[in-house]
Structures are given as structure tokens and as C-alpha cells.
């Protein structure tokens, strides 16, 4: 199997990331190497966990205060093991969680759908991997609409 793998994939190095073409027993293969590069420099594992945990703590505290002020019994929040689950009754359920292997924070929103965020050190916030949106801006808008009030995240420190 090792020789088959060696013949099929060739000797691709990190320096030669152009498409690789190989054929084997009448089958043609074209391999492409894709990657996204964090333009702000990679975070260490320790720094990622610190940033993500601090952000989730700020979100949890803000959401708990909102739920307490609203007095709604059909709203609920749970925060455990790096996952926030915010149930807003008829408005749906938000899930915000850490993705350590990717150094990302993921958001599942009933309004805007799934989104992935990476830490942008130049602006000190979690930015979307697909567009220019930030996690806090998206959550402030959507949660603010659900509560019919402006949302401000406390203990910000750039989060």
C-alpha cells in the first residue's frame, strides 16, 4: 500500500502546492492542495484558548443578564465545556462553541445560519472566515432584535 500511495501521490512538498496529476490503471487523479491562511499570524494553542474562553465568558455573562432582566421563562442558557446554548423560545436556539483544532469559534444561528470565526489580532475581535462580519456585531444585532433592545457586551477588552 505504501508503494501505491507513493506512486499515486508523488513527492509533493509544502513548497510545491500546484495541482498534481497522476494516473493509475486507467484512472486519472488530480490533487489540489487548499488552505486558508490567517493573515494576522497564527495563535498559539494557549493564546487561542485564552481568547476563546474570555469571549465565551463575556457572552455568557451578557446573555444571563439579559435573560434575568427579561423575566421570560421560555428562554434559557447553558454554558459548559466551551459551548454556549442559548434558547430564545420562538426566536430559536443559538449555539456558540470553540473549535480548538481550527483555532476558531463557531456560531449556529437560527437567523443567519452557521458561521466560523477566527481571531483577528489587528482589530482584536473574532472575524468571519467568509466575509467581513464580526461575531459580536452579528450577535448584538440578532439578539438585540430578539429582545427589542440594543445589546452591549460588557467586560469587552477588545472582544
TrEMBL record:
Record EC number: 1.16.3.1
Gene3D superfamilies hit by this protein: Frataxin/CyaY
Keywords (A to Z) from UniProt: Ion transport, Iron, Iron storage, Iron transport, Mitochondrion, Oxidoreductase, Transit peptide, Transport
Location within or outside the cell: Mitochondrion
Coiled-coil ranges per UniProt: none
InterPro entries: Frataxin (IPR017789), Frataxin/CyaY (IPR002908), Frataxin/CyaY_sf (IPR036524), Frataxin_CS (IPR020895)
Transmembrane segments: none
GO BP term (any one): iron-sulfur cluster assembly
Substrates-to-products reaction catalysed: 4 Fe(2+) + O2 + 4 H(+) = 4 Fe(3+) + 2 H2O
Enzyme class: oxidoreductase
GO molecular function, one term: ferrous iron binding
GO CC aspect terms: mitochondrion
Pfam families: Frataxin_Cyay
Family affiliation: Belongs to the frataxin family.
Identification of the protein by name: ferroxidase
Organism (species): Schizosaccharomyces cryophilus (strain OY26 / ATCC MYA-4695 / CBS 11777 / NBRC 106824 / NRRL Y48691) (Fission yeast)
Amino acid at each position: 500500500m505504501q508503494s501505491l500511495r507513493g506512486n499515486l501521490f508523488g513527492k509533493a512538498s509544502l513548497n510545491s502546492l500546484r495541482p498534481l496529476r497522476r494516473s493509475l490503471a486507467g484512472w486519472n487523479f488530480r490533487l489540489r492542495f487548499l488552505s486558508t491562511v490567517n493573515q494576522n499570524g497564527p495563535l498559539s494553542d494557549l493564546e487561542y484558548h485564552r481568547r476563546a474562553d474570555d469571549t465565551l465568558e463575556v457572552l455568557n455573562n451578557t446573555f444571563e443578564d439579559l435573560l434575568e432582566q427579561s423575566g421570560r421563562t421560555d428562554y434559557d442558557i447553558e454554558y459548559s465545556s466551551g459551548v454556549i446554548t442559548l434558547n430564545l423560545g420562538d426566536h430559536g436556539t443559538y449555539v456558540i462553541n470553540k473549535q480548538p483544532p481550527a483555532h476558531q469559534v463557531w456560531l449556529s444561528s437560527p437567523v443567519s445560519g452557521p458561521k466560523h470565526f477566527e481571531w483577528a489580532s489587528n482589530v482584536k475581535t473574532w472575524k468571519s472566515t467568509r466575509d467581513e462580519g464580526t461575531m459580536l456585531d452579528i450577535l448584538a444585532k440578532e439578539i438585540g432584535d430578539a429582545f427589542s433592545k440594543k445589546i452591549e457586551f460588557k467586560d469587552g477588552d477588545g472582544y
